Amino acid sequence: MNTLTPGGISSGQNEEFDKRYSARVPMGRMAKADDLVGALVFLASDASAYVSGQNLIVDGGLTAW
What we know:
- The protein is an alpha+beta fold and 65 residues long.
- It has helices at residues 15-24, 37-44, and strands at 3-6, 55-58.
């Protein structure tokens, strides 16, 4: 089994929250829901047939520090 762990996703948070969160992310912004699509398609496709026990983190680099 594999998992997908997203970072913060922009969904109407107030401007101050967005600004402070984005300042902590190397990519400089919160994710859009569409930013997860490629990772989800990969995990759902045959391309990941031999991938097992992995946690794919899609967080703009937040946890890379």
